[in-house]
Amino acid sequence: MNLSIIVAIDQNFAIGKDNQLPWYLPEDLKYFKRVTTGHTLIMGRKTYDSMGKALPNRRNIVISRQKNLLLKDAEVVHSLDEALSLCSDDKETFIIGGAEVFKQAILLVKSLYITKIDHTFEADTYLQGFNLKEWKEVYREDKKPDEKNHFSYSFIRYEKA
Ligand SMILES: NC(=O)c1ccc[n+]([C@@H]2O[C@H](COP(=O)([O-])OP(=O)(O)OC[C@H]3O[C@@H](n4cnc5c(N)ncnc54)[C@H](OP(=O)(O)O)[C@@H]3O)[C@@H](O)[C@H]2O)c1
């Protein structure tokens, strides 16, 4: 199984505000869909809540400490290890957040799909434990702002150096 993190960050490594994304960047949502469709997603319960539902055409696994949590459209597990053991036969698995789950997963993944947004947003949730100097950039696509996407941003893929 290939295990990757996919995340969008601002210039200060911010990822969230009030359990939502701090920005609206539709091209990044399309990119996320393109990269993850057909694959397995692992997420924290707060990220699931922020989306309000499982993402279609993907296997959705939600991590929670609540022993009685049941979700009608996602599998619930109680640790990252349990999530990973469930998808050991899946070809591609993406850790999709949020900060608490990224922090536990960073030492386990081989690739990072990072959208870097060239702006600073008001935020309350930040990536922790990521040192990008330990990673090698293997792909980059720089994008300019347009009518619908109001910031410049880059789609970057890193692999373990
Ligand atoms: N920019 C991005 O790409 C991106 C991506 C995803 C999310 N986000 C943002 O990030 C924020 C949410 O992140 P967050 O760090 O607050 O929450 P989170 O990581 O999504 O979820 C945290 C919850 O996951 C469960 N959990 C985490 N580790 C666990 C473990 N080892 N064992 C069992 N359960 C575990 C717990 O659920 P219970 O409380 O149910 O026990 C915990 O409260 C939101 O603002 C969201 O919009 C941004």
TrEMBL record:
Keyword annotations from UniProtKB, A to Z: NADP, One-carbon metabolism, Oxidoreductase
State the Gene3D superfamilies in the record.
Dihydrofolate Reductase, subunit A
Which residues does the UniProt record annotate as the domain DHFR?
2-160
Gene Ontology, cellular component aspect:
cytosol
Pathway annotation from the record: Cofactor biosynthesis; tetrahydrofolate biosynthesis; 5,6,7,8-tetrahydrofolate from 7,8-dihydrofolate: step 1/1
* Function noted in UniProt: Key enzyme in folate metabolism. Catalyzes an essential reaction for de novo glycine and purine synthesis, and for DNA precursor synthesis.
Its recorded name reads: Dihydrofolate reductase
The protein's matches in PROSITE patterns, at most eight in alphabetical order, are given as: DHFR_1, DHFR_2
Q: What biological-process terms (Gene Ontology) are attached?
A: dihydrofolate metabolic process; folic acid metabolic process; one-carbon metabolic process; tetrahydrofolate biosynthetic process
